[in-house]
Amino acid sequence: MTARAADRARYDRATAHLDAPLAIVDLDAFDANADDLVRRAAGKPVRIASKSVRCRALLERVLSRDGFQGIMSFTLAESLWLARSGFEDVLLAYPSADRSGFAELAADPKLAAAVTVMIDDVAHLDLIDAARDGGREEVRVCLELDTALKLLGGRVRVGARRSPLHSPAQLAELARAVARRPGFRLVGIMAYEGHVAGVGDSVAGRPLRSRAVRLMQAAARRELAERRAAVVRAVRAVAPDLEFVNGGGTGSVQHTAAEDAVTEIAAGSGLYVPRLFDNYTSFTGRPAALFAQPVVRRPGVGVVTVLGGGYPASGAAGPDRLPVPYLPEGLKYDPQEGPGEVQTPLLGSPADDLLIGDKVWFRHAKAGELCERFDSLHLIEGDAVTATVPTYRGEGQTFL
Fold first, then answer.
1. Which of 6, 183, 247, 383 could make an SS bond with 262 (beta carbons 3.0 to 4.6 A apart)?
2. pTM over 0.85
3. Is the dihedral of CA 101, 395, 110, 179 positive or negative?
């Protein structure tokens, strides 16, 4: 029996009393992945990206482990909810235009002490000030550095289009604007190198592309390490009490941790290890989060149909954004239909061994987005469900 077949047998036994659709997290794999993130971070704390987890119970689980510290959130409403729930260190990774949220933040000492908001423009300070509604609490802010690699005098750009702040001078200028503005305190710098951390460098069947990605990433890491160090020096000249410099992502943990200028690493997808993280030479994780759909039809030889399953992930549309049939091994989509809104035909010889009501296990393309489809996660240890916990959706929280 292969390791995957053994996992399928465990998951089927553990959930035999449960009807699909359902979602699980294999805690043995989850904990092993957490240990690997800590190992790769080499002594620097790992801040957990909540968008990749979207389950309070699992955020609490991982933050109780050595090597993890703080949350990186994705909306201001989520940040305030987490702070009210007892999380004391929440870094909002994206600028917000949530005026009512800023009014709450500026009026509550506990929230203001726990939440740090992201800015990359003086206009963000103006919006927060206009939204205070009498609140006088000091707002903690973080500056975001654009990590993109620019070549040929800027005519070629590699990297996500995030912050407009690219040079040390630009970040220092905004740092001075924060320092001059009453009611704000600059506490951190964040830089997410998505073109390194979020792009696989070993794509099956595409050796030339994989080599090109590795060459690009090596060049990007060298350029960013030098520029990030210069940025930190420039900002610290304005704000010597800077508390943290955050960088990285699941795919670049060990490389980012090696930079002296970085004080903490961001990661989240590495806990669940969705299918987009199969194509890396720098680490190998264990798939921890899966979902099951029930077989509801047997249209013919070598074909079964499962309920639903059309759960595409965000990003540029393409086959790599689709869930993948995982267990039993050997199933694939019908190219004429793909995964459907209410039913999904699957092709392959394993279909002939599946009966009506059997479960087919899938892996989602991206991590926490799976939790937008399910209101609970069944936590498996060995071959038993040991707990069932709500996702954000299950707690009535749909932030985006």
1. 247
2. yes
3. negative
